[in-house]
Design a protein that fits this description.
29% helix, mainly alpha
């Protein structure tokens, strides 16, 4: 009844989930948010795929708010 290995045996950690999000590279500064294939398509502030899009201070969220339309004459 007090064996912790028996209690946690049924709760095995899940493996890595495959995603197109490159948030790890963005967080390390190796890629810019707009280099992500999911940026502003499947990854938006309303449906974030990674941590940098979740917070308003995150790199992806900031790019989404201020840089996404830069090439189209935006700010």
């Amino acid at each position: 009844a007090f064996d912790a290995t028996q209690l946690s045996a049924s709760k095995k950690p899940q493996g890595k989930q495959e995603t197109v999000c490159i948030s790890g590279l963005v967080l390390r500064g190796l890629k810019k948010p707009d280099e992500c294939p999911a940026f502003a398509k499947t990854c938006t502030p309303l449906s974030p795929l990674g941590a940098p899009m979740v917070s308003a201070e995150g790199a992806c969220a900031a790019y989404y708010a201020y840089h996404r339309n830069k090439g189209a004459g935006g700010t």
